[in-house]
């Protein structure tokens, strides 16, 4: 499935300069960006949630590298790489997977990761978000330790599977359709994908960890908040606008966001803004003053002071030192465990 089949789930408001969600039907008919008040930016997202709320899907296509800072979620997230490359850091292990690779993030376990295109292909991923009760109910059938109030299952390492890759591709296509019976087909395909992962996941890479009972921000809300922050100019960023976009109260969002990231939304946003400045400083055609203005700082001195507080050096010094974007993808790679061979992408 090529990137052109994935949908835009964000648009910009003229007043706020931030993205707003549209329905899948709207997105299918809205590949022309002429109606947008600013050009569409990568990445593009589509979300789907079951009626019970215990199962969620996220499709992502990006033509640029995207990195998510360390955070936690309350659910399991099965992420399958359809194209490009995914990096993941969890429980002290660094991994990079390509097409057909699978990685699972676990409830309450801090992890970070990123998505990077390969060549001209872009990066496409499918993520299944599962309530921990779903996995707990399946565990005995697969001979896994039964989770209880004190312990939960944690899946480490990675997997490589042609069967799971093909199932994920079929599932991605179904998510983009609006045919009758769509929800039933999606739930059936998602169930099969989870079953195949549990069958094939190496048992030495499944262990028990202390159950996390802290309420945290679900992955869907974290990703939407993250992209809102990435796209919102500094002068327009308001917590009120972000919470309106998410459909959440400011008190609830701030509490869950803090539990998931160990930082406030404002501090997180400022860090993202300055990491964007790091990227822009690689372009020597832009002056430091132009970069500060582009990011919404009122003066060059304000930008320089904020950059120095965060990174311990001035923008000018950073520009002289930088040769690669630091920290976006771990250098160490843990090979995926292969459940079945996957042919090279054509």
Question: From the helix content, strand content and strand pairing, which structural class follows?
Answer: alpha+beta
**Measured distance between first and last alpha carbons:** 11 Å
- Profile the largest sheet: 7 strands, mixed
Could you name the ranges where pLDDT drops below 50 across 5 or more consecutive residues?
1-42, 324-346
The average pLDDT score comes to 82
What order do the strands of the largest sheet run in, or round the barrel if closed?
3-4-11-6-9-13-15
Q: Determine Rg (CA atoms, Å).
A: 20 Å
The ordered string of helix (H) and strand (E) elements is EEHEEEEEEEEEHEEHHEHHHHHHHE
The tally of beta strands, per DSSP, is 15
Number of helices: 11
Explained architecture:
By secondary structure, this protein is of the alpha+beta class. The chain has helices spanning about 25-30, 130-140, 160-175, 180-200, 220-230, 240-245, 250-260, 265-280, 290-295, 300-310, 315-320; strands spanning about 10, 20, 45-50, 55-60, 65-70, 75-85, 85-90, 95, 100-105, 110-115, 125-130, 150-155, 160, 205-210, 335-340. The strands form 4 sheets. Strands 3-4-11-6-9-13-15 form a 7-stranded mixed beta sheet. Strands 5-10-7-8 form a 4-stranded antiparallel beta sheet, with no helix packed on it. Strand 1 and strand 2 form a beta hairpin. Helix 3 (about 160-175) runs antiparallel to helix 4 and helix 9 (about 290-295) packs across helix 10. The chain is globular. Residues about 1-40 and about 325-345 have low confidence and may be disordered.
